Hints:
The strands form 2 sheets. Strands 1-2 form a two-stranded antiparallel sheet. It has a two-stranded parallel ribbon with strand order 3-4. Helix 4 (55-68) links the parallel strand 3 and strand 4 (73-78). It is an alpha+beta fold. The protein contains 6 helices and 4 strands, in the order αββααβαβαα. The radius of gyration is 16 Å and the shape is flat.
Amino acid sequence: xxxxxxxxxxxxxxxxxxxxxxxxxxxxxxxxxxxxxxxxxxxxxxxxxxxxxxxxxxxxxxxxxxxxxxxxxxxxxxxxxxxxxxxxxxxxxxxxxxxxxxxxxxxxxxxxxxxxxxxxx
Length: 121
């Protein structure tokens, strides 16, 4: 596993290709408060092979939306899909694939198309 960590921790300032200050700034935001102001339909998508974000993260977004705008938030879990919408059997395979991921999973296009059609108006 340590062999693969070199792909994610480049130096003292970048982890997963993201500057640590970005992560500090992101952590300081009240994202729940921001999501609570959204009244538009929201599709919170999580790939089951995503090791970077949790299922609970996307479920929470849909829940917050639904508290402020009943029925507007929807959670969708996509099998064999990672954080970048690439195909992966599971979180371990996605992690070991490293940055750049693998083959794009077209299931996201189908899911988004269906959701857009359901919410067009």
